[in-house]
UniProtKB/TrEMBL annotation:
It comes from the Bacteria. SUPFAM superfamilies: Acyl-CoA dehydrogenase C-terminal domain-like (SSF47203), Acyl-CoA dehydrogenase NM domain-like (SSF56645). It comes from Sphingobium rhizovicinum. Coiled coil: none annotated. This is Acyl-CoA dehydrogenase.
């Protein structure tokens, strides 16, 4: 059991530095980041949030588990946001196995993790999307887009729709290079996340590969409030950028009150985002009815913090922040793309509607 979370993360500095060093290489020559993922296996990240019966770590409570998760996601994001994206997908998959997997599927997962398998969750698609056909032997049609780790991960949980039911999760192989198309993944950042297209046309579906029931994946608060996890990962990138500004700020800028104020504002934005991510993780762990709104608001707080810190980097460091090969440049390129998650204004507007109706602050602090 975890008594002191801090003690569990003595590997923090090592893994952040290791991912950052490897990240520069994978950014320059984007291939699936095999060595970075291997480093995460060695550091224990790979299995930490798997179901307990599959070798996942035992935590004192859901709150402790989510606190540890936030810390791990931030840490990996601080090293390299592309790996953060892949890791966040893997953690999401472990949770989905935990919530919806049968004992037979947990046995299968244990073997897969024993062999070092990495998982993703692929939901994004263009219409008509991925469908599960039930005529004769079940099989899939269609393709996923923005499929992080396409052709490089071992397995993905994909959403599939069918005529009679809500969409459901199917476990598929993600490593078939002939099905992966990375030709369109020509992006300024997040290159090593390899978020290409993946064809699922004709993939046969055994009953063991159906995870949960139709509709399970979309159940709230888990689905919408789960956004806190990508916020935590993005926060890691923001923290890495603040660290770079602090390290690289020249003496002239340090002696200047305007630049100092800018740096302080960047730190406040970063720490504010940290408080919201922690609060959001806590609400998620408690299964609070406000968890969905907390996560939606956290998305906006983290997005704004990202913009503040990226602007501070440009204004404090000048052109140095934009040179190829500079860590600052890579973090900004990665962060600016990774912050672009689905429907940001819609999410914020939904939160605003809720707030107009009632305050969501927990701990007896509600004002209306
Ligand atoms: C690096 C990276 C990795 C990813 N990995 C995965 C993954 O592994 N699995 C997965 O399932 N998904 C993944 N995604 C996809 C992600 O979850 C989002 O679907 C995607 O980022 C949204 O892209 P978009 O901004 O182009 O959104 P779009 O929905 O195409 O919107 C584009 C713009 O139009 C605006 N817009 C759209 N509709 C409206 C409207 N009705 N009203 C007002 N404005 C509107 C949006 O706010 C946005 O600014 C990944 C994305 C990235 C960037």
């Amino acid at each position: 059991m975890i008594q002191d979370i801090e003690e569990q993360f003595t590997d923090t500095v090592d893994i952040v530095d290791r991912l950052a060093t490897l990240g520069a290489r994978y950014d320059a020559a984007p291939n699936f980041p095999v060595e970075s993922m291997a480093a995460l296996i060695r550091s224990g990240h790979h299995r930490r949030f798997a179901p307990q019966g599959c070798g996942g770590q035992a935590f004192d409570s859901e709150a402790a588990r989510n606190r540890a998760m936030a810390k791990n996601l931030r840490q990996v994001g601080r090293g390299d946001l592309s790996i953060g994206r892949l890791y966040e997908g893997h953690v999401n998959a472990m949770l989905l196995f935990d919530w919806y997997g049968t004992s037979e599927q947990h046995r299968w997962l244990t073997h897969a993790l024993d062999s070092g398998a990495w998982f993703g969750v692929w939901a994004t698609e263009k219409a008509p999307g991925v469908r599960l056909t039930q005529v004769g032997n079940a099989s899939l049609s269609g393709e996923k887009i923005f499929a992080s780790g396409a052709g490089g991960l071992d397995y993905a949980l994909v959403t599939a729709a069918s005529t009679d039911h809500a969409r459901r999760l199917v476990i598929v192989s993600a490593s078939d290079k002939a099905r992966a198309d990375l030709s369109g993944w020509r992006v300024r950042g997040m290159r090593a996340s390899a978020s290409g297209r993946y064809s699922l046309e004709g993939v046969a579906v055994e009953p063991l590969m159906l995870l949960g029931e139709p509709g399970d994946y979309d159940l709230d608060p888990r689905f919408t409030a789960g956004a806190w996890r990508f916020c935590a990962t993005q926060l890691g990138g923001i923290e890495a950028l603040v660290l770079e500004i602090q390290r690289s700020m020249c003496d002239g800028a340090r002696a200047n009150p305007v630049q100092r104020a800018r740096f302080a504002d960047a730190v406040v934005a970063m720490r504010t985002a940290g408080l919201w991510v922690a609060k959001s993780a806590e609400s998620f762990a408690a299964g609070h009815e406000n968890a969905v709104t907390m996560a939606r608001l956290t998305r906006r707080v983290v997005e704004n913090a990202g913009f503040t810190v990226m602007e501070a980097a440009a204004r404090i460091l000048g052109t140095q922040s934009a040179f190829d090969g500079q860590r600052t440049d890579k973090i900004i390129r990665d962060l600016s793309l990774y912050l672009r998650q689905g429907g940001p204004d819609h999410a914020h507007d939904e939160a605003a509607k809720t707030l107009l109706d009632h305050d969501i602050w927990s701990g007896g602090e509600r004002l209306w």
